[in-house]
Amino acid sequence: MTRSGREEKTADAKAHTRAALVAAARRRFAEQGYAATGTEEIVADARVTRGALYHHFRDKAQLFQEVMKEVASEVAEALVESELTREATAQNDAWTQLCTGFQSLLDFSTRTDTDFQRIVLVDGPAVLGNDAWNALVETHGYRLLSQWLERAIAEQVIDPIPVAPLTRLVAALLAEASLYIARADDPQAARLETGIALDRLMSGLVGRRPRPLETPPAWPASQPTDPAPAAR
């Protein structure tokens, strides 16, 4: 075997080991949560050594971060694909697509058949802190969100608001809404109430055509009062 062939085989083996660790960790984190999962369980499921784990990842938290990125990326792709499919049959202005996508994200927050709720919404901020959450949103949300907001402004559906701060504010609103739903005692009820509140807040961005100035009402002229009778 040539040197290049050996290097390629080694690279493939490393990639396979890394993928096996991420897959095993993802199953454990989704089923048991971060705190209840031990690295010995992960390496046993992946059928690798503990040394292999620490060769690829600094610690359990870094492995969790990789899993969270994978799950978030899948959800982002699923939402985009859903909206692109819907675009062919439904109203396709940018603002309608955005609002529909927002509600779809809230639906994901209630689903227990995916890893999104447990890994990204519940354990993610607790394990990695706000900085990791913000980095995740920036990677998978800011750019796409700002593009669609720019389209909505260009289509004159929403008012011409500075896009950079608007993107940050809307993203923060969606993140908090998702966290609120995932942590609620009754996620379905929280989803319904949050959807109503989100719609009302988003409606405030919709442009309103200025109404013509109203003509002030013509008040009746003051009637002169009769002069007081002269004193006698």
Notes on the structure:
- With 232 residues, this protein is mainly α.
- It has 2 domains: 14-57, Arc Repressor Mutant, subunit A (Orthogonal Bundle); 64-203, Tetracycline Repressor, domain 2, CATH 1.10.357.
- 72% of the residues lie in helices and 0% in strands.
List the defining traits of the structure above.
single chain; 232 residues; mainly alpha; Arc Repressor Mutant, subunit A; Tetracycline Repressor, domain 2; 2 domains; 8 helices; elongated
Topology:
Layout: H1 3-32, H2 39-46, H3 50-56, H4 60-87, H5 94-110, H6 116-154, H7 163-183, H8 187-203
Overall shape: it is elongated
Largest sheet: none
Low-confidence stretches: 209-225
CATH architecture of the largest domain: Orthogonal Bundle
What class would the helix/strand composition place it in?
mainly alpha
- Name of the CATH superfamily of the largest domain: Tetracycline Repressor, domain 2
If you consult CATH, what is the topology of the largest domain? Tetracycline Repressor, domain 2
Mean pLDDT: 83
CATH class of the largest domain: Mainly Alpha
Total DSSP helices: 8
The ordered H/E elements are: HHHHHHHH
Q: In percent terms, what proportion of residues is strand?
A: under 5%
Between the first and last Cα atoms, what is the distance in angstroms?
135 Å
Count structural domains.
2
Number of strands: 0
Helix content range:
over 70%
Rg, nearest Å: 28 Å
